[in-house]
Amino acid sequence: MSTGGEKAKGKAPHASQNSESLGESPSKMPKPGNPVAFWRSILSPPQSNQAGLDTDLAHLYMELLHDWAEPKDAVEAWGSGGKVRELTKALVQAILVSGQVLQDLKRGPMRGAQIKFACQGCNPSYEGGCCQSVTVPLPMIPLIHHANVLLSGALALLLWDSEELSEIQNEILSEILVEAPPGVNLPQFLQQSVVEGKPPVLPVLLGVVDNAQELAPKLALNALKLMSILVLRRPGPALQQMDELVLAEAIGRFSLYLLNLTRDPCKVKTWFGMSYVLDILPLLYFLGMMTRGKKAVAVIPNLVQILIAISEQLGSFNHDGEVDVPFPVEEFGCLRTAFPATMTVHAKRSATSRALLETHPASFTAACVVELLHWWEIQGVPVRSCSVDAFPSKEEAKRMTKKERNHSPSLDTRSSKAI
Questions:
Q1: What is the pLDDT of residues 311-358, one digit of tens each?
Q2: Which domain holds residue 94?
Q3: Distance CA 252, CA 307 (A)
């Protein structure tokens, strides 16, 4: 099997001095001595450019929140006195500022390159030892680090399946996604929100996706996950804020990244690619619900073709000769964070969906994409089966000019070796 790099050992890093020893088990994060104080510390942005154990651990602790925190910890950390508002205000501000930072980098010499941050948690999880890609090394950028940590923490909190946390979760959604009152002029309402320092979060998230998808893909992925959750939980306010064409364009560009992951010789990247495809499905269904969304999908170059190519690729996925196996978490520890953020949504559909997702993730993902495309076609979105020809043969690829290769949705001309 090709992994594209060194195998991860499945062990989380050692905890800080106020935590219990992790020992030999990779299955559980050690609980901080004061979990509430540790959790609330994410509100403060880092003040140093120096990356270290604490910065990397902040990501890991937020991504694996359910390993060490209990519902009572969440209630104490965020349950009263305007604490949820503190969290959502810090989150939106961090996303907004990080997008501006990335926009400046994008305009400079970094255009088109993926950054390899000194803080490993700011990089996609598969870059942390499982696989390596061509990247440009940079020190930790505190504002991007802070946005990633806050996004991971907010996602974990929103997806926690606990009755004790339903009030906090609803408050987070209400604070993040404010709905315009009936009869109010919508453009004026949104403009007034910006003036009051409460910018509509979905356009802000879309801006981050657009600016981060090449430079900092993990930040873009986290933003897309949060957008999916908001669309699932609050479709009404989401409809008010979302520009369907901008959303379709952003997903169309990002789908190239997902296609390259599912086709990568590194199997770990393929597993992450499956997860990310499942995470954007709510946004793709959301587009098909609206007249402007359907028109937007129809005019975005190659989006339907790329989705068909992804479903075909995953339909033939195998691991060491075995067709479609569960995520081998014991073999590749970084896959602990590969399970889709929308997993609880799929699990609630039926026990069968949950079982298929856990035992046959590639087939399940391919089937979900085919189901989406069929639903799109019913809604009037043109879906053409001949677009499967997005994969050129080796002979065709050799004959293609450099310009044609750069515009081919199924070719990634970057090397998979580390610098």
A1: 988 888 877 767 777 777 777 777 777 777 777 666 666 677 777 877
A2: 1-242
A3: 10
Q: Which residues of the chain have pLDDT under 70?
A: 1-28, 46-56, 109-112, 127-140, 186, 190, 194-195, 197, 321, 344-350, 385-419
Burial of residue 384 (number of CB atoms within 10 Å: 0-12, 13-18, 19+): exposed
Q: CA 63 from chain center: how many Å?
A: 12
Same domain, 300 and 361: yes
Could you tell me if 154 and 91 are in contact, meaning their C-beta atoms sit under 8 angstroms apart? yes
Which of left, alpha, beta for 266 (phi over 0: left; psi -120 to 50: alpha)?
A: beta
Structure tokens at 1: 């099997």
The token duo for 251 is: 């997903």
Could you tell me if 177 and 274 lie in one domain?
no
Which residues lie below 8 Å from residue 234, measured CB to CB, with a gap of 6+? Answer: 173, 177, 179
pTM of the model: 0.79
Specify the amino acid at residue 9: K
Structure tokens at 279: 């995470």
In angstroms, the Cα distances linking 407 to 75, 212, 395, 402 are 50, 20, 17, 9
Residues 35 and 50: their CA atoms lie apart, in Å, by: 24
Q: How far is CA 273 from the centre of its chain?
A: 10
pLDDT of the residue at 77: 92
Of 233, 369, 342, the C-alpha closest to 279 is 342
Give yes or no: residues 13 and 121 share one domain. yes
**Tokens linked to 13:** 């890093």
Q: Which of 209, 242, 275 is the last residue of a domain?
A: 242
CA 322 to chain centre: 28
What is the per-residue pLDDT for 224? 93
Nearest C-alpha neighbor of 367 from the set 234, 277, 245, 260: 277
